Amino acid sequence: VSSEAQVGVFVDSVMHYFETAVQQPAACGMPHLALRHSPELYDYTGIVRISGHGQGGGVVYFTAPRSMLCVMLMCMQDTDLSHEHLCDLVDTIANTLSGDAQRNFRRQFSVSVLSAAQDRDAPVVYPPDRRPIVIPIAWRSYQARLVVCLDS
Amino acid sequence: MVRSSMKPQPQDWSQLAAIKAPQRRREPVRSAGPIAPRRAAPTAASHATLGHAPAATSAPPAPAGSLPPLPAALLLAIALVASCLLVGHQRLDAAGVLLCAVATAALQAPVMFYFGVRARASAAAAAAAQRQDAVILGAMREGLFVIGRDLRLRAPCSSALSELLHLPTPCGQRFEQLFRPLLDEETLAATVTFLRLLWNDDTDRDAIEALNPLTQVEMRLDNAHGGSVRRTLSFSFRRVAGGEPADDGILVMVTDVTDTALLARELEQAKADGDSQPELLLQLVRSDPQTLTNFLDDADTAFRKCNAVLSASGIGQPHLQRKLTGVLRELHAVAAESQALPFASIARRLQSIDDLLSELCARASLSGSDFLPVVIGLDDLMSHAATMRAIHQHIVLLRAASAALAALDHDHSAEQHAPVVLELS
């Protein structure tokens, strides 16, 4: 599967989540490469680790600010805006990404959900010599990021 | 952008009418099912659609307008009994007519019952067949539909068809109307000509089917998020005969072969890259180090500028158009510079990304996800430029080491020869 198709799977997965679970579509921003430094993390981050069967692998994560996640929960008729609940939400998004990746790259990769990190400075380990692709996700007035870094 | 492999050239299409088959009579219809292949072994799909057909073929229905022997005999008997009663009653008064009517009604009751039971059984069989068709058409992964002589898609179509074409209701639409947004004009015109030739009874269908212009065609389909996805679809066409000439159709099966096509392309690309590695190495060895370093520096700056243009804020249409123009301008500058250098690998990558950008320029509206292939292409360009720089640095180091060794050898030989010179002098 080409890189375009691989990244496309994750973009579609996030978009589909907003359409179905949140029931308000998000817009895909302009993708670009993170060249000088690692992409900045927002308050909550759901990380998916992908390891290749032979070679390759990578990391994919969805990172969003607390305010956006709170509004998402409210849209889903959920009034519990506690830290644990927000972690659960990014965990669910990471699980959705993982499920779609498993369905699409079953023969190529094994996929595991790593964590729902809250620490902005939590180090994300990228494959060496790879440039992460940053896809901004615009939802209402909020901005989140989907970051895909695959070593194919 | 539509790419079609095995697409016949326009001159082929002008010659197609010349492909004539030997005159053949219309073969008898073998099945009362909705789709019955005329020749050759039926495909899996046609088997599937004809799942209930063998029952119909084993017991052919009576011709329309004729009655089965038993009810016909009964009706004859009723008529005879009624006539006998009328003649036997001797008088055609009200009682006689009433008696005849009652006798006729009494005798007709089993016949009516027979027809009722038969009609109910037929209706149940038809409903079961319809349900089976619906289940099969709903479960198929391939798109399946039948095109009529008016080039209109007949109902029912398989459920997968609308998913494959990203269209809500393809059934009932004309082929041209349905595929005009998906295919370029040339391919569409070739396909319509192909379909008309398939309908022509005088042409050799096997020869025509081999010229299918949609054997493998790349389409850009709109997705639900306002962007688009590129899929490679394979269409196969087969003329099939129905019970009546009006039921004849062209059975079309659509398969998504995107993964296969991508793998084939990647394999080809990997092979080309593998073949070009020694060539690249030779080109790097032969190139002027200063020119090469300047080019790589300029290219790196341009690639970073492209990325900066892309990462700037704004996702409205004017912003996207401006970003597209900015990236094109930067890459054109690199492409112009690369033409002076003999590096085919980087020129090919630049051309590929330029094609993507030109395709985006032709679009009326853009979305962020449309730029994903451009960003991936940019990443590939940067990786390739980095590889070139690394190889070049190794070559520079090797040259320096070689020069140092040569100098050492020269010094060593000079030391050995020096006393001899002194002695001679």
Mind explaining what this structure looks like?
- With 152 residues, chain A is of the alpha+beta class.
- Chain A has 3 helices and 7 strands.
- Chain A has helices spanning 3-22, 66-75, 83-104; strands at 27-28, 32-33, 44-52, 57-64, 109-117, 133-139, 142-151.
- In chain A, strands 1, 2, 3, 4, 5, 6 and 7 form a 7-stranded antiparallel sheet that branches.
- In chain A, helix 1 packs across helix 3.
- The longest helix of chain A is centred in the middle third of the chain and has 22 residues, at 83-104.
- The model of chain A has no long low-confidence stretch (mean pLDDT 84).
- Chain B is of the alpha+beta class.
- In chain B, strands 1, 2, 3, 4, 5, 6 and 7 form a 7-stranded antiparallel sheet that branches.
- In chain B, strand 3 and strand 4 form a beta hairpin.
- In chain B, helix 11 packs antiparallel against helix 12 (317-338), helix 12 packs antiparallel against helix 13 and helix 13 packs antiparallel against helix 14 (372-424).
- Helices cover 62% and strands 9% of the residues of chain B.
- The chains are: A alpha+beta (152), B alpha+beta (425).
- At the A-B interface, helix 1, strand 1, strand 2 and strand 6 of A face helix 10, helix 11 and helix 14 of B.
Strand and helix layout:
The complex is a heterodimer of chains A (152) and B (425).
Chain A: H1 3-22, E1 27-28, E2 32-33, E3 44-52, E4 57-64, H2 66-75, H3 83-104, E5 109-117, E6 133-139, E7 142-151
Helix pairs in contact in A: 1-3
Chain B: E1 4-5, H1 10-16, E2 36-37, H2 44-49, H3 53-58, H4 69-89, H5 94-139, E3 143-147, E4 153-154, H6 159-165, H7 175-179, H8 185-199, H9 205-209, E5 216-222, E6 228-241, E7 249-256, H10 258-286, H11 289-311, H12 317-338, H13 344-361, H14 372-424
Helix pairs in contact in B: 4-5, 10-14, 11-12, 11-14, 12-13, 13-14
